[in-house]
Amino acid sequence: MFTKEAFTQEPKIVDCETAEGTKTRCYQLITDGAPAGRKPGPFCPRTTSDGADVGGAWFNKEGTGDLVDITGEFILKLGEYYGDEKWMVYDAKTNKVRYTATKEACLGAAKPDVEEEYMQNCIECELSYLDDNFSRTFLIPITPITAAKTGRARTVGIALDGTELSAAAPVDAILGAYTIAAFDDCGGHINVHQGYHYHSTTGCTDKLTTDDGHAPLVGYAGDGYGIYALKNAKGEEAKSLDECRGQTDEVRGYHYHAASPSENKFIGCFHGETVLPEGPPHGPHPIGRPPLPAKLEEGH
Ligand SMILES: [Zn+2]
Ligand SMILES: [Zn+2]
User: Fold this and answer.
1) Ligand 2 centre distance from Cα of residue 187 (Å)
2) Would you say residue 50 lies in a domain?
3) Residue 20 burial (CB count, 10 A)
4) How many Å lie between the centroid of ligand 1 and the Cα of residue 212?
5) How far does residue 16's CA lie from ligand 2's centre (Å)?
6) Domain count, the chain
7) Quick one: pLDDT band at residue 115, thresholds 50, 70, 90?
8) Which of 39, 83, 158, 281 is the most buried (most CB within 10 A)?
């Protein structure tokens, strides 16, 4: 089901152990942090007169429904939009949008405590900022194991283009620094720890797997269950979901339906067991269940 060239090595089946201690077999998927078959972006508009084609998208302030386009107009009206006149992400003389144009700026702005000089910025990072040998390893049980207790993890799963379906973006910290961690229109962005990763699903990796009108497959959760789009072929949202946003049917068995793009999550929790990373951690966002703060947040 994955996009051609989603992985940097042929996927393997390896021995693995879940966080709950179940010994099982896993798919080992290794990626280079880039979405297969697509160039990420655009993210930040360049001037306050740019239209939606030049910029990407961001969570709307309602926290549900579609993303909002980051147009020049949106940048101009950020103060009004968030009810805080301190917002100033552009130069009023030149009408140029202030954005992170270098690796240094990307690193400085995309930290939990944003450095003063990188506040008031539209944040965008490039794949070229990743280490030369950057790679991500995903271990996913080949047969999902229903967990005794639902769980959470920093990595939700993997999209069909080989990039991460990420835990929630720390929106309060991002907006608190008067920054926008711009997504592209596919609902993803880049950081040097996760590579390109999604915070939202807007249809870019959707793949129709059956002709029964069910919502298309988006990717797989870390517990091995499929994550499907929110809406079916008729545009109707999935109903009767459990707390993890899952449901069961005869064709797919247990599976999830992604939340709406602005909800800052894909699923509610893991229905199945997930695997902790093997050996040294592969960067700060391995798949699995490291100890988490009460509020699930990542360094964007
Ligand atoms: Zn379904
Ligand atoms: Zn992020």
Assistant:
1) 10
2) no
3) 16
4) 11
5) 27
6) 1
7) confident
8) 158
